[in-house]
Structures
1.
Amino acid sequence: MRTEDPLHVRLLRLLRDEGAASRAELGDRLEMPRPRLLAELDRLVALGYVSEAGLAASRGGRRSTLVELSPHLRFAAVDLGASSMDVEVVNGRLEPVAAYAEPADIRSGPKLILQRVNELLDKAKVDGAYERLDAVGIGVPGPVSFRDGVPVSPPIMPGWDRFPVRELLTREHGCPAVVDNDVNIMAIGERHGGVAHSVDDFLFVKIGTGIGCGIYLSGEVYRGTDGCAGDIGHIQVDSHGPMCSCGNVGCLEALFSGAALAKDATVAARAGVSPALAERLAANGTVTALDVAEGAVEGDVTCIQLIRDGGRRVGGVLAGLVSFTNPSMIVIGGGLAQLGHILLAEIRSVVYRRSLPLATGNLPVVLSELGPRAGVAGAAVLASDVAFGEAS
C-alpha cells in the first residue's frame, strides 16, 4: 500500500484486501487520528462505498461495529487475448459473481470485440450479477498508452491503433474505465492474489500467442514513457531468424510463441521425426502447442527438444533482464506455461548460468499461481483502483 495515496484510497484498498474491520483496527493499520478516520468513513458511507457489517467478536467489554466495502460494489474485468476473451463481474472484495470465457479473434477489430464484451456484461446484468458497474478494467494484447486509454500500434491487432477503448467503455457503462497491456494486468493480478503476493520487484513473463513481460519495480508497474515497456517478444535473438509480425526478423516471439511452436511442430510431424506429432497431425490435420506439451509428457524426444529450445531462447533474454533490473522473482504465465516444468527448468538453467551470481543467488523462477485467471484478476484490481480514486 503506497503511503502517498490519499487516505480514502488506502482505506478502501485495505477493506478490499483484508475484509471487514472495526474502526479501531483501521485506525491502527492506517496510523490515522480517530476523528479524521471517522469523518472519512462517514463520507464514504454517504457515497455508497462503505457500509456497516455487524458487530466484531467480543474481546470483553463493548463489542465494536465492523465496516466493510458496500456489498453493492461491482467491477467488470476483461482480459482480451489474441484468440480468446475472459470477462468477469466481481464484488468489492474482487470475488467473481459472474464469469464468461470464449474464443475471440482480436484481428476482427475493436468494434466487434468490444460489442461482444458489452453483450456479455449485459447478460451478467440481466442474470442479476449487478445493477450498475462502478468501474471497468480491460487488458489488450499490445502496447497501450495508459494515460490516454488507447492501444498504440499493436502488431497483432489491426484496426485497434488509437481506438478509444476507455472512452467507449466509459460511455457504454456510465462509469470510469481503465485500459492496460494484457501482461501488465496479469502481473497486477499475480501480485495481488498469486505467487508474487506483495513482492515489490519481479518480472511476469507471459508466453502465449505472443511474449511480453510485466515489470514490477518498487511496488509499481513500470510501463515506460509511452506504455511499451516489457515488450520483450520483439527483442532480436537471431539476426538470421524468421520474419516477425512486427516487420523485423529473428524476434523472440517469431522463434518461440504459440504460433512459432505450432509451426515448428508441424515441420517435425511432416518430416516424421516425431511419432507423437505425426500421429496427431494425421488424426487432426493440424498440430498445436498443446500437442507438443502432451507429446513431451509421453516422452517424445522431439517435443521435449522443441520446448527446451524455446526455454533456452526465453532464458537468454531473461538473463539480460535479470542483470539489468535485479528482480526478486520471475513468474512464468500465459498459455505456453502449460508446457510446464521442462520449459521452466530450461529457463531457470539459462538464467542462473548467464546472469550475475549476485542477482540469481536467491531468485525463484516459478509458474503463475493464478494461471488463466491472472489477467481478469489484475483487470479487477485496476478497475477497483480507478473507482476508489473517484471517491474523492
2.
Amino acid sequence: MAVAGVIGTELAKGTSPGPVEMGIGGAEAYVLSAAVALPLCFRRRYPLTALLAVSVLFFIAGERVPFAFAGNLVTQACMFMAIYAASAWSRDRRRMKATMVLVFVGMFCWLVYGFVKALQDDTIKGAAQGMLSPYVSFVLLNIALNVLYFFGAYFWGRTAWRTARQRHVLEQQAVELAAQQQANARRAVIDERLRISRELHDVVAHHISSIGVQAGGARRVMDTAPDAAKDALAVIEDSSRTAVNEMRQLLGMLRAADPDLDEEIGVPAIKAPQGGADRLPALVANANGEGLSVGFHQIGHPVDLPQTVSVSVYRIAQEALTNVRRHSTARTAHVTLRYLGESAVEVEVIDDGRPKHAPVGSRLGHVGIRERVSLLGGESEIGPRPVGGFRVRARIPLAPAAVRQKENSNDE
C-alpha cells in the first residue's frame, strides 16, 4: 500500500493541469503518501493505535499536499481500511466506539471547515443548471460521500467482528459439548461398573457364604456324623450350581442386551428366571440350616412389581441374609415383604444377633443396598435395632412416574 501510494502521487502529479506543491524538499508528498499506509502493518495487533496514526497522517496529507490527497485513491483506501480494522479487530468495544467518535467528529469538523473556507474564498463555481446552487450541491454531495465512506467502513468492520464472534462462540460451545459428552461417557462407565460390581457382589457373596458355612459344618462333623457331612456337601453342590447358573445369567445379560447380537457372538439365550420378589420364600428356605432359623412373612395384597423393583427386593433380602450368616451371631432371622397398596413395596430383614468379633467385611453389601434403593427413588434403613439385633429395611415406591423415570435412566 505504501508503494502504491507513492505511485498514485506520481500519477496525480502527472495529470495535474497546473503546477503542484510537493512540500518540503519536493518529496513531502511522496513521504506522506507512503506514511499513511505504514501504520496498517499493526492493524490487527493494535487496531485503535493504527486508526489514530492513519487519521493524523490523513489529515496532514490533506492539508499539506491537497493534490496528492484528492487525486490519490490509495490514501483514501488506507483510511477506509484503518476504520474497518478498528471496528473488526478491537477487543475492547467501548474503547473502540470512543475512538470512532473521536475520529469521526474530527473528520467531519474538518469537512465543515473546508465548506466554510470554500464559501469564504468563493471557490465553488458552476453553471447553476440544477435545482440547487453549485455550493449547496457541492456540500450535499460531499456529506453523502463521506457518510457512506466513514460509516460504511465502520459497519462493514462491525459485521465482520460479529461474524467472527459468533463463530468463536459456536466453537466454544462445540468444545464444551464435547467435554460434556466425554464427562457423560465417563459417568456412564462408572455407573455401569458400579452396577456390575453390585450385581456380582449380590450374586456371588450369598452362595459363596453359604458354601463356606456348609463346608465348615461338614468339616466339624465329618468323623462323628458322616450323614450330616454328606447333607452339607449336597448343599454345597447345590449352592455352587446355583451360583454358576446365576453367574452365567448375569454375564449373559451384561455381555449383550441385543438378542441379535447374542446370536451373532454365540451367546446362548438365558432362559432361567431372574431372582424376584416371588422367589423370596425359596430364598428363605435355602437360608435355613446350620444354626440359623429364617422365617418369612408377607403383608398386604400382592401387586405386579416392575422387574427392576422385583429384582432389587430379592437382591436386598439376599444380601441381608448373607450378612446375617457371615457377620452376625444371630440364631434367628425374619424376612418381611410388605405390599403398601399401589404406592410402594417394603422388604425388611431383622435378626437377633450381634456382630461377630472378627474382621469386619468390606461394607460393600450395605453400599449396594443403598445404591439400589436410591436409584429407584426409595429410602433405606440399615443399622442396629433398639431391642437388639440388626435391621435392614428398604421401601421402594411404585408410582408410575417415578418407576418410568428410573427405568428410562437405566435404559440410557
